């Protein structure tokens, strides 16, 4: 393990010699996969978000902003791909390095904040449908979105005022690679962990726990709808933790314990593997949106049914079509349906309307 000092790029800074092979093996696969899958998926999500905005649904504002953050990061992937394929040698200027770095971190924290906005909006819609209706308007969603983008942009400008390129012992120009961690990075990492991850995950968990409690107590909501909501909530939390949790934990580990090149080399692979997981958020967001949107979900069911018919699976197709189009109450006998009507009409007017029209996009 060696140290290196280069006065042209980073004065009086020690740079560690670290094995970057994970960048040439794992990261190209991740970047290509995320670009090929994430670009069309996010374009489709952007279109459906636009349709929601046309019908004055404030969730469309949050979803479009979430998708734009993903697309901006996807546009930077060719630059990162070239960087890792050239053995971590940045061939562009420092300004381009800062722009790509901003897009990387903007995707992480803007995605987190808009996921929280969506969860809080659903919480207000389901738990307090009439009390906070003024907070669930198009104007409020636009104001919150502008505030989030402005906050993250100003934060990035403040954080990235330091030099972001340096030379390693192999004479490669590295971008956003500081090993061991620099003193000025500690405060940035603490802010990102507590304000950018821990507080949002608390909001998200609180909102969805309250939503699940209301759904569980709702007697007028169909069992199928309850199951869909529970699956969506669980998927959102799992994806949030998998995509962003490991990276923030390893970031704090580095901030607390990384003081030598030996420790930096020890955690390098696992830290960068956790960083690569954040890229999969660009794919997870559109997938979640498809399950969160009732109309989009039906579109995918229609496409699936067409494929089944094409492959001569008409019998299966007819079965699934009946299940998707026939409510559970209709499948009861007429006598039983008449007995349940009096009870269902009272609670379904409130619970089903809220859970189907407000929880879903």
UniProtKB/TrEMBL annotation:
GO molecular function: G protein-coupled receptor activity
One GO location term (cellular component): plasma membrane
One Pfam family in the UniProt entry: 7tm_1
Record localization: Cell membrane
Membrane topology of this protein: Multi-pass membrane protein
UniProt keyword terms in alphabetical order: Cell membrane, Disulfide bond, G-protein coupled receptor, Glycoprotein, Membrane, Receptor, Transducer, Transmembrane, Transmembrane helix
Entry-linked InterPro entries: GPCR_Rhodpsn (IPR000276), GPCR_Rhodpsn_7TM (IPR017452), OGR1_rcpt (IPR005389)
Residues annotated as domain G-protein coupled receptors family 1 profile: 41-289
Membrane spanning residue stretches: 29-50, 62-81, 101-120, 140-161, 190-211, 232-253
Gene Ontology BP term (one): cellular response to pH
Family: Belongs to the G-protein coupled receptor 1 family.
Record protein name field: Ovarian cancer G-protein coupled receptor 1
Record organism: Geotrypetes seraphini
């Amino acid at each position: 393990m060696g140290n290196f000092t280069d006065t042209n790029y980073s004065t009086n800074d020690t740079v560690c010699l670290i094995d970057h092979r994970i960048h040439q093996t794992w990261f190209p696969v991740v970047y290509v996969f995320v670009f090929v899958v994430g670009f069309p998926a996010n374009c489709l999500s952007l279109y459906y978000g636009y349709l929601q905005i046309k019908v004055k649904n404030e969730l469309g504002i949050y979803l479009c902003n979430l998708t734009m953050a993903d697309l901006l990061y996807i546009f930077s992937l060719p630059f990162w791909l070239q960087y890792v394929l050239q053995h971590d040698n940045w061939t562009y200027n420092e300004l381009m390095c800062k722009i790509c770095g901003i897009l990387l971190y903007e995707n992480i924290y803007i995605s987190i904040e808009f996921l929280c906005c969506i969860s809080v909006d659903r919480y207000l819609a389901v738990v307090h449908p009439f009390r906070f209706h003024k907070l669930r308007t198009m104007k409020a969603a636009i104001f919150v979105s502008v505030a989030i983008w402005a906050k993250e942009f100003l934060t990035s400008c403040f954080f990235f005022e330091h030099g972001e390129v340096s030379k390693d012992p192999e004479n490669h120009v590295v971008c956003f690679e500081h090993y061991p961690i620099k003193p000025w990075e500690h405060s940035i990492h603490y802010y990102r962990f507590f304000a950018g991850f821990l507080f949002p995950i608390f909001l998200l968990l609180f909102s969805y726990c309250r939503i699940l409690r209301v759904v569980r107590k709702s007697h007028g909501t169909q069992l199928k709808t309850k199951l869909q909501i529970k699956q969506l909530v669980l998927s959102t939390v799992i994806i949030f933790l998998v995509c962003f949790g490991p990276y923030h934990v390893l970031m704090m580990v580095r901030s607390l314990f990384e003081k030598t090149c030996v420790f930096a080399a020890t955690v390098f692979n696992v830290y960068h593997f956790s960083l690569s997981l954040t890229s999969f958020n660009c794919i997870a967001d559109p997938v979640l949106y498809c399950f969160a949107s009732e109309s989009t979900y039906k579109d995918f069911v229609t496409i699936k049914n067409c494929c089944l018919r094409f492959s001569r699976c008409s019998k299966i197709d007819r079965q699934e079509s009946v299940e998707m189009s026939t409510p559970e109450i209709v499948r009861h006998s007429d006598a039983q349906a008449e007995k349940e009507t009096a009870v269902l009409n009272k609670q379904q007017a409130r619970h089903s309307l809220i859970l189907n029209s407000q929880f879903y996009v």
